[in-house]
Amino acid sequence: MTDEEKNENEEKIIDEKHVCDCEKLQVECEEYKTGWKRALADYQNLQKEVDARRAEWAMLSAKQILEDFIPVYENFKKAFGIIVKEDEDKWKNWKQGIEYIMKQFGDVLKVHKVEEIKTVGEKFDPHFHEAIGQEEGGESGAILREVDGGYKMGDNVIKVAKVIIAK
């Protein structure tokens, strides 16, 4: 074998090594790329989960505040329902003031997407109502009177309505 043939053989061996190394490197590169894509997807899923938790915490925080706020609103509603006939002008002004305060409370509840739970005339639903008594009259299980209002925020019940139902 001549020197020239030896050089050609050596060049072929070197070229074959390069080809083999390149294929191996391409496989490794694909493995790293796949791993990186998985890690990126995991990170994006984590971000979504953290955002969902934050939204849940914010809603729970608002719910806690509103749980304290609702009884005040309920008392204003009850006070507004009382009709006083003495000194009509004095009580008319009182009624207008109470009416304004009740409207403000109602507006705050609406801003926070709080809705009153429907009661009178509705069918009793233990998810939204608490029966505290029964009376004769009407269809069995129908709500006759509301004793204390109930409230919900979206699908979450903040406070069940206390009601009297038909026997």
Major sheet, described briefly? 3 strands, antiparallel
Overall pLDDT score: 83
> Looking at the structure, what is the overall shape?
elongated
User: Which strand order does the major sheet show?
Assistant: 1-4-5
CATH class of one domain: Mainly Beta
Q: Structural class of the helices, strands and pairings? A: alpha+beta
- As a percent range, the share of strand residues is 15-25%
CATH topology of one domain, by name, is Nucleotide Exchange Factor Grpe, Chain A, domain 2
The helix content, as a percent range, equals: 55-70%
CATH superfamily of one domain: Head domain of nucleotide exchange factor GrpE
Poorly predicted segments: none
Q: How many distinct helices? A: 2
- CATH architecture type of one domain: Roll
The radius of gyration is 36 Å
Secondary structure tally: strands: 6
Distance between the terminal alpha carbons, to the nearest Å?
113 Å
Order of helices and strands: HHEEEEEE
Task: Give a structural overview.
The strands form two sheets. A three-stranded antiparallel β-sheet has the order 1-4-5. Helices cover 62% and strands 17% of the residues. Strand 4 and strand 5 form a beta hairpin. The chain has a domain at 115-167: Head domain of nucleotide exchange factor GrpE (Nucleotide Exchange Factor Grpe, Chain A, domain 2, Roll). The chain contains two helices and six strands; from the N terminus they run H-H-E-E-E-E-E-E.
